[in-house]
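Lab notebook: predicted structure, single chain.

Context: the supervisor wants predicted structures on file for every construct in the current expression panel, including those that have not yet been purified. This is the next one on the list. No modifications to the sequence; it matches the entry in the shared construct table.
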Amino acid sequence: MHRLSNLSRSFTSKSSSKLTTIRQASMAGKHQAAILPQKGGPLSVVDRATLEPGPNDVLVEAKAIAVNPVDYLQRDFGMPPPSYPAVVGSDVAGLVVKVGSNVSNAPPSGSRAIAFASSFYQGGSQDHGAFQKYVLAQSEGVIALPDALSFDTKNHECLKKLGADVVFDYKASDVVSQIIDTVKKDGVTLRTAICVVEGSLQPTLDVLRHTMGDAVAKVAHAPPLLPGAPTLEGAEVKFVLPPMDPAERSDHMYKCFHVWLRDGLNSGTVLPSPRVRIEAGGLQGLNKALNTSRAGVSGTKIVVQV
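Prediction complete. Output recorded below exactly as produced.
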């Protein structure tokens, strides 16, 4: 979920003062949303009713929406949502408009915030998908956006600044042997990994085959695992997603957002990364943003401003 911090640099305040005026009138009216009408898309921008937040929800006025690989998989290949029409997307930066009656752990109305707003965990509710101007998010996944955040640039130097001890060019033809040689030279056992882009699982398993030793290796896979995905004896590969049990998921999201992410952003131990690329067109530009993401980007998070 660290990818949410990428949004912070596309939604910075011109002053440190709190925003105190919100367009409350829109809550009783309508807002624009980029809906997915059927499998294979494309997204279509329509008007939707703006709802009051439920007891445990936060209503956020989106200012920036980040796209992720799962978003174009949902649009193009029929991955969840469970039904159509749907509002997909999950990563939002914006203003808190109103909080639900039971909410005590989210920023107050008028605050700048980042939110995890996914309809997948809300029974396909269109009101909870990120690709719209006003979106509901469960309170455990909403935190205040710090006033001051740093800016970074090119990939390897950026990764070193973020704390990486060694970096490799994944496009190098011998990158697998480079990593294996480095691990053996350092005299360490490497048995955990995370794959965040499509096509990275096989080379990751090739590395682990020579570095995992006798213990079980574990791989977290951020893109959904498709049928026929590579495997390795002695390695567990799991798709990364929050628990499906609602109570466990709420606890998990609270720890991720209100402990790790919020405290890390405020202390500087979590840095916004990678660099942001703005796609023009607002909600109308989401189709192009998804196409850009699907074509492949490096060290870049695609964001639309709304």
